[in-house]
TrEMBL record:
ABC transporter domain segment(s): 342-589
Subcellular location: Cell membrane
Species, as recorded: Peterkaempfera bronchialis
Location of the ABC transmembrane type-1 domain: 26-306
Designated name of the protein: ABC transporter ATP-binding protein
Molecular-function GO terms, alphabetical: ABC-type transporter activity; ATP binding; ATP hydrolysis activity; ATPase-coupled lipid transmembrane transporter activity
Keywords, sorted A to Z: ATP-binding, Membrane, Nucleotide-binding, Transmembrane, Transmembrane helix
CDD domains recorded: ABCC_MRP_Like
Disulfide bond keyword on record: no
PROSITE patterns referenced in this protein's UniProt entry, alphabetically: ABC_TM1F, ABC_TRANSPORTER_1, ABC_TRANSPORTER_2
Listed Pfam families: ABC_tran (PF00005)
InterPro entries: AAA+_ATPase, ABC1_TM_dom, ABC1_TM_sf, ABC_transporter-like_ATP-bd, ABC_transporter-like_CS, P-loop_NTPase, Type_1_exporter
């Protein structure tokens, strides 16, 4: 019940914030519409009495009044709908905006990696459209409460025993409440399996995986797994639905018995001369209305309970959301140009929810202007180190200093604005081509010349000519009929995005050539050398390259070999080749394979 009340309060507050005038208009119109219903019963009673008394004039007026009330009952709710349906959409939009800011409200990615936070975020994202109908439900519930109050007073005045009818109406409401709880619990229990079922469906049909699924003939395996999964989900949900249906039926039966009792009571009262035929008509009409009011209330409560749970989840995200104090102070320790460089001091790191050390007491000095290459086997921690250097995660031990200032305290947001990055799992933004590149430096989003310059620099010059609409052409098929690009072309756009950033202090390219052909790869590494020189002379920036291709890292000023989260070798190509360690071994191996 507290979930429900909290949801009602929250939805009304939000509606006031979104558009108080529209809300007031909707409430006024609904009040008139909903009040008309019990007044119709009163008119029918008077009409019966007037008919029995053969009073034609009074009867005519009452008939007209009844007709007017019927029109008001029907029309006002329609007009009110015009006011509140848009409010519901505004509320959904406001909540969507809040979800986006909760997901991105911290400088780092830690909270998105926390399993509880990520799961709740996914549920809220999925369920948010429910809240659109929730305001309508709150307003209608208010209308129902008004109707029930008037009905209660009318019944109480006629015979206090009739008030038991209202009490009896609470039984199906409580039973419905309980039934919904059972269903919600079952859904929660089944949620991981429901998600698995959807994931399996996506695996079998999504463009990215469909090819391999087809070639391996795995459809049958996926279908069987999905069938098994849904069978167990359906069994759980069916049990809950059956118990819920039973509970609801018992509740409705109690009310039906009370309804019959009320009619018997008032008929006996009429037969004994205690009341007139008009009163019998009034009770029959009001009791029928109570029945409708109760079943409608049940439906509205079900909608509100669903929305209430979503809002509760959203609240838990708000509570779990931990804004960075350093980011909010607005103090920036980020220099306009690097003079000393970046120092990693005993840096250790474990991902949220895990004790496994991905980086283990890494200490490294990267002087300003250095072109650094990071190599190591799969899973050694290279991409993790890049993410830490970009300020997307904070070290769980040790610290990262930028020109002597701790990154965690010196304005991590400002630092992120000064990093140009191409991640290994770069984003394929299925938006306009302009957005794909422009997001690298939002101030340049509408600067065609700057966008084209970075596209050319990334060796992606022909792409705008291939995409219908050029820079304003849509990419991908997610929501529109956009142009599809090859893997390498997407990667080149990712690089163009990184190159757009002005005056970066850190340029980090993580496996930037993984999808490129040999010519493009060669061009990229030549470009990398130029980039390192430009960045060095411009802002003293550090340029970082992660690559498994040893021939391309040899020109770096400093090469770091990571092994299981620790630095095992460090030096120039010549030094490492002479040292005869892992680097020399892998370099020789690749040289032999490629020659
Ligand atoms: N978001 C994450 N949550 C939990 N563990 C993660 C996450 N990202 C990476 N890891 C783990 O951290 C370890 C290091 O991953 P990382 O991506 O840094 O390796 P890498 O050296 O870049 O490997 P590769 O050469 O394959 O790209 C891996 O064992 C991986 O399972």
């Amino acid at each position: 019940m507290t979930t429900l009340l909290r949801a009602i309060r929250q939805l009304l507050r939000l509606a006031v914030r979104c558009d108080a005038r529209r809300l007031t208009r909707a409430v006024a119109l609904l009040a008139v519409g909903y009040l008309s219903t019990p007044l119709i019963a009163v008119c029918l009673k008077s009409l019966t009495t007037a008919a029995l008394a053969r009073s034609a004039a009074t009867g005519t007026w009452l008939a007209l009044t009844t007709a007017l009330l019927l029109v008001l009952e029907l029309m006002m709710t329609h007009f009110a709908h015009l006011s509140y349906f848009e409010l519901g959409e505004l509320e959904e939009l406001a909540l969507q905006n809040e979800v986006i800011s909760l997901a991105h409200g911290t400088t780092g990615l830690e909270q998105l990696d926390r399993p509880g936070f990520a799961d709740t975020l996914a549920l809220v994202r999925e369920e948010l459209p429910r809240t659109r109908a929730a305001l309508e439900a709150v307003l209608q519930l208010g209308g129902m409460a008004l109707q029930l109050t008037v009905t209660t007073v009318l019944l109480g005045l006629l015979n206090p025993w009739l008030l038991l009818l209202i009490l009896a109406a609470l039984v199906p409401v409580a039973a419905g409440n309980r039934a919904q709880l059972l269903i919600d619990r079952a859904k929660e229990t089944a949620a991981p399996r429901i998600r698995l079922g959807r994931h399996l469906l996506e695996l079998a049909t999504a463009e990215a995986s469909a090819k391999e699924v087809r070639l391996s003939g795995a459809e049958a395996v996926l279908t069987e797994r999905q069938r098994r999964d849904w069978r167990s989900v359906t069994a759980t949900l069916w049990r809950a639905q059956a118990s819920a249906a039973l509970l609801r039926a018992v509740g409705q039966l109690v009310f039906a018995a009370a309804y019959g009792g009320a009619i018997v009571l008032v008929v006996r009262q009429a037969l004994s001369g205690g009341s007139g035929l008009g009163d019998v008509i009034l009770v029959i009409t009001l009791a029928a209305q109570v029945s409708f009011q109760v079943s409608t209330t049940l439906g509205l409560l079900t909608i509100l309970q669903g929305a209430g749970r979503t809002l509760e989840r959203l609240h838990s995200l708000r509570v779990a959301h931990r804004p960075d104090t350093a980011a909010s102070t607005g103090t920036s320790g980020v220099p306009s140009a690097l003079t000393v460089g970046i120092r990693l001091e005993e840096v250790s790191f474990s991902y949220p929810g895990s004790d496994r050390k991905i980086l283990d007491r890494v200490t490294l000095d990267i002087p300003a202007g250095t072109a650094l290459a990071l190599v190591g086997e799969n899973g050694a921690g290279k991409s993790t180190l890049v993410k830490l250097l970009c300020g997307l995660y904070r070290p769980t031990g040790g610290r990262i200093l930028v020109d002597g200032v701790d990154l965690a305290e010196g304005g991590p947001e400002e630092w992120q604005r000064r990093t140009a990055t191409l991640f290994q799992d770069f984003a394929r933004l299925e938006l306009r081509l302009r957005d794909n590149v422009g997001i690298g430096d939002l101030d340049l989003l509408d600067d065609d010349a700057a966008l084209r310059q970075s596209i050319d620099a990334a060796d992606a010059g022909p792409i705008p000519d291939q995409v219908p609409g050029g820079l304003d052409g849509l990419l991908g098929h997610s929501y529109g009929d956009g142009a599809e690009l090859s893997g390498g072309q997407w990667q080149k756009l990712g690089l163009a995005r990184a190159l757009l950033r002005r005056r970066p202090l850190l340029v980090a390219l993580d496996e930037p050539a993984s999808a490129l052909d040999a010519t493009a790869e060669h061009a990229l590494f030549e470009r990398f050398a130029d980039l390192a020189t430009e960045a060095r002379t411009d802002t003293g920036a550090v340029t970082l390259l992660v690559s498994h291709r040893f021939s391309t890292v040899r020109m770096a000023d400093l090469i770091v070999v990571l092994e299981q989260g620790r630095i095992s070798e460090l030096g120039t190509h010549a030094q490492l080749a002479a040292a005869g360690g892992l680097y020399a071994e892998l370099y020789d191996l690749q040289a032999r394979v490629y020659t």
